[in-house]
Amino acid sequence: MDRKRILVVRPDELGPGELKTWRELRAESGAPGNPFLDPAFTTAVGQVSPAARVAVLQDDGTPVGFFPYEKGPLGQGRAIGLSVSDSQGAVLRPGVRVDPRTLLAACRLSSWEFDNLEAGQDLFLPYAVERLAAPVVDLDAGYGPYLDGLRTRSPGFLKQTLAKERRLARQVGEVRFVYDARDPEALRALMRWKSAQYRRTGRRDRFAQQWITGLVDLLAHGDDPECRGVLSVLYAAGRPVAAHFGLRSATVLSWWFPAYDRDLGRYSPGLVLHLRMLEAAAADGIRMVDLGSGPARYKDSLKTRELPVYEGAVVRGGAGGAAYRLGREPARAARRFVRGHPRVAAAARHTLTRLARLRER
């Protein structure tokens, strides 16, 4: 008799033993302890998204794998927290093998989409259509050695940022930094700044989506050492001028929502915040800061290396799979084309910015 089974449950139906096993399997994999692949993140998404599910792979009644996902119309699935999750995939005991389409069939999914698939996810890598780079900052040796390396790699960046911090203190007021702030007003300011940035650049405002604001609020009030939100705030003259809300595990901090007060943009308060954060994170036991995929000049200056992440989808046959291909593949192909042609990408960004400004009039 086949002793292997796949059970599908809601995240809140996972028991303490299963949560413990999930974390043990992650540790056995040797992958970085990214908080987005911790069960606490899936559980939090489950509280704001009724579509959240977890497939539990069992061998003779013992859990040997977990596959978190969200299920949409016609069985179209997506990675848990897609669009805000920076690390995606399944958590499997080393050596466990399962056919991806068999897994999707057990979950009643016609497709499963990912945009930040973790490296080493051999189950899904054959279905990746694009490889992206996620810059990271290694802090294993501490902040001092990292700063020495930054001074060598990007001397102008470091010198200018430190000079702007001094100018901010002189011209605006005393500069103060709090690494793990419990400041609801600062969090609201961060959301306002970030929403304005999304609109200004023609991107969809994530904080206009209730499930995302609900998720951030849940994680901001969490206290799980393996997955909790960290709000870092830079103050000048007693008021927030830059902030970042990220997600951390015991050893990895994921860059998530950074923003700053544009009225003080000439002082680069966001960059000042980044340097202060890296120093505090290293002192707090963080060994790697994942800056997330997506181009940004400050990431190029801060990073020590890059990790690969992948975009793509597993698609089964049938009406649901066909609907996915018709609805999503053209847009994906267009994005890949734009990313592969820098001049086209620059023109697209310029057009989006102009459209956003017209909407604001």
Question: Would you mind describing this structure in some detail?
Answer:
This protein has 361 residues and is of the alpha+beta class. It has 2 domains: 4-132 and 308-360, Gcn5-related N-acetyltransferase (GNAT) (Aminopeptidase, 3-Layer(aba) Sandwich); 140-286, Aminopeptidase. Helix content is 41%, strand content 26%. It has 11 helices and 13 strands. Strands 1, 2, 3, 4, 5, 6, 7, 8, 9, 10, 11, 12 and 13 form a 13-stranded mixed β-sheet that branches. Strand 10 and strand 11 (252-260) form a beta hairpin. Helix 2 crosses helix 7 (210-220) and helix 4 (143-153) packs across helix 5. The longest helix has 21 residues, at 319-339. The chain is elongated, with a radius of gyration of 21 Å.
List keywords for this structure.
361 residues; alpha+beta; Aminopeptidase; 13-stranded mixed beta sheet; Acyl_CoA_acyltransferase
Main sheet makeup: 13 strands, mixed
The end-to-end distance, rounded to whole angstroms, is 68 Å
CATH superfamily (homologous) name of the largest domain = Gcn5-related N-acetyltransferase (GNAT)
Helix content: 40-55%
Predict the CATH topology of the largest domain. Aminopeptidase
Classified by CATH, the class of the largest domain is: Alpha Beta
Q: Report the count of strand segments.
A: 13
Assembly level: single chain
Structural class by SSE content: alpha+beta
**Shape estimate:** elongated
Detail the poorly predicted runs. Answer: 348-361
Q: What proportion strand?
A: 25-35%
- Tally of alpha and pi helices: 11
Task: Sketch the topology as an H/E string, one letter per element.
Answer: EHHEEEEHEEHHEHHEEEHEHEHH
Please state the second-level CATH architecture of the largest domain.
Answer: 3-Layer(aba) Sandwich
